[in-house]
Structures are given as structure tokens and as C-alpha cells.
């Protein structure tokens, strides 16, 4: 088991109640190496991944996942029963165009599922939690810290790395929800853990890395349940 498998299983549990039954046609935007797509394929979904990362697409294809290297804004997928934005929508510069293309792609009655990062929800306690975890993981030699010099205050660091002061700004969760509402009927909005997934993508590809990811998820869930930190994960299910 790998660290990414922990996040894939957690997302699959949510998707089991969001996607139409197999063999529905599903397009995953930003599917990367195809871990989620492969899991859905094994559940008899007809899944295609589109991503602009050539290396990730090569890995996905090697795993047996139909994958296309393309810019979502220029890709013509044909009608789909479901479309997934898996932590990709916040990166796409032209948000309204990205959602408009989704509306053109999903058949009438189909669903769009957004699994995202609501970066504006981080408060001081959440930022402190994030950077404390990062420091511990780095000290344990399971995670590399970035080279950039950052402010000492956790919330200021967050704003520089992920918030409004970031060099290439990311869309907020609120902006993504608004864009989806303008084109679709929103049926579900849910908060979920996110910090563990952020770190899991940089952990070693081993059972030890997976064990660390599971521990991070458990800690984050406890902190969320206790109201100690804010949920940075956002999931939306909307219907065409």
C-alpha cells in the first residue's frame, strides 16, 4: 500500500454515493497518475483521465488507464455521465470557462463532482496545525521542506504559500462553488480532511509512507471533530 492509496480509498467512499452506477462514462480532470481512475475502472466504470502533465499521463497509461495529455479548456471529450475535478479546478486560471466546458461535456442529468481545496478557510489554528505537522514530518526525514524563506507567523506563511499573497493565486472554495452554481444544480456540499492528502503526495512510496498517511488522516479527523481546526477539503456534487 502507498500513501496515495489512503486518499484514494477515502475519496472512493464519498464517490460511492455520488456517481451514477457502473458502467457509467466518467471523465477525470486532473487525474494525474490515474490512481483513482484505476480504482473506478476496477469497479466497472468507463474512465478516462485528462491531465496536462506528460509524465503523469505516461504513468497512468502504463497502469492501464485511458489517459489523454491535454489542456482541459481545449479538450473535447464527448458526452459523459459524470465528470470529476480531483483537486484540479483551483489551479485552472479561467474558472468560468473550465466550468462552462464541464457543462458542455456532461449529459443532461449527469453529475459533476468537485473534490477540492478551500484554501481561504485556513485560520491561525489551522495554519499552525499544518506547519507543525510539516516540521515534524521533516524532522522525521519523511518529508522535504521547501527551500523558500517564509514568515515566522503561520498564517502569514499560509497566505504567502497558498493564500492571497501567493505569486500565482489559487481559486478559493467560495469562487469554485459560485462557478458551479452558475451552471449546475448543486445537490451536495461537504467539508472533508485535506491536510493529510497534501502531505501524502510527498511521502515515500512504501507501507511506512502509507502508515504515516493513515496517522495523519486520523489526527486531522480528531482535530476537525473537536472543532480545533477548519476543514480545508471541499466536495461538491452537482447535476446538469
Number of domains: 1
User: What is the H/E order?
Assistant: HEHEHEEHEHHHEHHE
CATH C-level class: Alpha Beta
Compute the number of strand runs: 7
Largest sheet: 7 strands, mixed
Which keywords apply here?
240 residues; alpha/beta; 20% strand; Rossmann fold; globular; seven-stranded mixed sheet
Give your account of this protein's structure.
It is a single chain. With 240 residues, the chain is of the alpha/beta class. The protein has a single domain (3-239), classed as 3-Layer(aba) Sandwich (Rossmann fold), CATH 3.40.50.150. The protein has nine helices and seven strands, in the order αβαβαββαβαααβααβ. The chain has helices at residues 3-15, 35-41, 54-62, 95-105, 124-139, 154-161, 173-181, 195-200, 207-225, and strands at 25-29, 46-51, 67-69, 80-86, 106-117, 185-192, 233-239. A seven-stranded mixed sheet has the order 3-2-1-4-5-7-6, sandwiched between helices. α1 packs across α2, α1 crosses α9 and α5 (124-139) crosses α6. The longest helix is centred in the C-terminal third of the chain and has 19 residues, at 207-225. The chain starts with a helix and ends with a strand. 42% of the residues are buried. The mean pLDDT is 93.
